[in-house]
């Protein structure tokens, strides 16, 4: 069964020069749902974060993800352009966001916000980790709509043809990532949160998020078309996979520390 990409317009609607795109809408929806759920989860487990602190962190999280995502994309994927024109890093209209850059930006936001408000880093980081897969899910669906991050050629039963790219059957890798890094990862973290999480287990969800996201992304990248201007390292690993390796080990290290001192 060969599927055909539905060719959805990446622009939801236009008002003159103003365009509302699915990609931007995915970020907005992810942040709004995430902020709402964080308040619910915070209340359920009786953490020390106040509703006001969570509201205050919202703008920090948005800035961390957007600035980190842009800077990360340029540094990781377009370093040659940056070196020839450093101002390119602020050309947001050129597009391009890196998950790993956004993750670094979010971590820095949590560090600075926690220090400023004298809260535990992992208390906030765990809540962010718990809802992050929701934003990842919407982001990958937007990638699918925009025909970005397409999969490699395949004869797999659920292969998909992207007519705007070519007429070759390919893995719908964006949907794989939406399923594993979004839905499945959220279900895993939500289960742990409900069954085993308490105020004495700060860091558990953060460690699990880094480990499972890094692992899922690492293996799915074998089915994703490498970036044309970068290719594969050692004819085997993509840059995305290389960037996931530290996440896996950092996640394992956090989990080891939690287990050691529990």
Task: Report the mean per-residue pLDDT as an integer.
Answer: 91
Percent helix range: 55-70%
Low-pLDDT segments, ≥5 res: none
Number of helices in the DSSP assignment: 8
Task: Specify Rg, calculated over alpha carbons.
Answer: 19 Å
Largest sheet: 3 strands, mixed
* H/E series: EEEHHHHHEEHHH
Q: Report the sheet-strand fraction.
A: 5-15%
CA(first)-CA(last) distance:
50 Å
- For the secondary structure, the number of strands is 5
Biggest sheet: strand arrangement = 1-4-5
Shape: globular
Question: How would you classify the helix and strand content by structural class?
Answer: mainly alpha
How is this fold's topology laid out?
Blueprint: E1 3-4, E2 11-15, E3 18-21, H1 22-45, H2 51-77, H3 79-84, H4 99-117, H5 121-145, E4 160-161, E5 169-170, H6 173-196, H7 204-220, H8 239-261
Parallel strand pairs: 1-4
Antiparallel strand pairs: 2-3, 4-5
Summed up, what is this model?
This protein has a domain at 3-23 and 138-261.
Describe the structure.
The protein is mostly helical. The protein has helices spanning 22-45, 51-77, 79-84, 99-117, 121-145, 173-196, 204-220, 239-261, and strands at 3-4, 11-15, 18-21, 160-161, 169-170. The strands form 2 sheets. Strands 1-4-5 form a 3-stranded mixed sheet, with no helix packed on it. A two-stranded antiparallel ribbon has the order 2-3. α1 runs antiparallel to α5 (121-145), α5 runs antiparallel to α6 (173-196) and α5 runs parallel beside α7. It is globular and about 55 Å long. 33% of the residues are buried. The model has no long low-confidence stretch (mean pLDDT 91).
